[in-house]
Amino acid sequence: MKCIIIGLGTYGRVLVDELSALGHEVIAADNDANRVERVKEMCDAAFQIEATEELSLSVLPLKKVDVVIVAIGQNLGASVRVVALLKKLGVQHIYARAMDYVHKNILQAFDIDKILIPEERAARSLVREMELGAKIQLFRVDDKYCVFKFQIPKQFIGMSPNDLHLNEEFNLKIIAIKKPKKVQNFIGIEYNESEVVNATEDTEPLVTNDEIVCYGKESDFRKLCKLL
Fold it and tell me: H helices within the chain, ranges in order?
């Protein structure tokens, strides 16, 4: 995938770093020379431009990438103006960061592909972690369904995955079991690494520090948590 990221604050810089690490072609842009300098080694190209000016923005290869991400943070006016200019210049796929619901509602008028609210997502993740427990990870599929990974409670120790009857009693489908194992690195130091086991083939009893990955409604998972 080829993408352009406009705005290189913390959020934009992390996007550049992560997307580049995954092998995507990333072009970064910001009006701050220091921010551009910090990311130029991470990505394929980095430009110091004033993206709120049409002439400056048009120097980027906007029509040759798969998506343009407007990661501008606190400056609502700059964010909206850049999105408006991108639409004027005929960019087909635009993602834009919104700081709040007013910002989101304004961006919705441009009919862009995706509106990103990272602060809201981070806050929701923290609340779920506090409510469900620090040893539970959640990946949301849509408003109702999620993939969950959680360390088994003591009640599950000694039971096989089939003995749990999570599908029958809670409508939660077990996808995999992760079991810790000791491995050595190339200099002989031992460390713990999780090994994924196909849940449908695993008949071994669960032991301390095993993890279960399952899929289902968040409301059903909460019912399970209450019983545990």
Answer: 10-21, 33-39, 54-57, 76-88, 101-108, 118-132, 161-164, 166-170, 218-227
Residue-level pLDDT at 202: 58
Non-local CB neighbours of 196 within 8 Å, separated by 6+ positions:
176, 177, 178
What was the pLDDT predicted at 197?
A: 72
For the whole prediction, is pTM greater than 0.85? no
Secondary structure E strands in 85-144: 94-97, 114-116, 136-140
As a whole number of angstroms, the distance between CA 36 and CA 16 comes to 11
Instruction: Count the helix, strand and coil residues of the chain and give each as a percent rounded to the nearest 5.
Output: 40, 30, 35
Stretches where the chain sits below pLDDT 50 are: 134
Spatial CA neighbour of 220 closest among 157, 128, 144, 135: 144
d(CA 120, CA 123): 5
- The one-character DSSP state at 210 is -
Spatial distance between the Cα atoms of 215 and 103, rounded to a whole number of angstroms: 33
Q: What is the pLDDT at residue 206?
A: 87
Q: Which amino acid is at 147?
A: V
Amino acid making up residue 200: T
- Paired with 114 in beta bridges are 95
Amino acid letter for position 35: R
pLDDT at 137: 77
The answer to whether the beta carbons of residues 13 and 29 sit under 8 Å apart is no
d(CA 180, CA 18): 27
Q: Are 95 and 116 in contact (CB under 8 A)?
A: yes
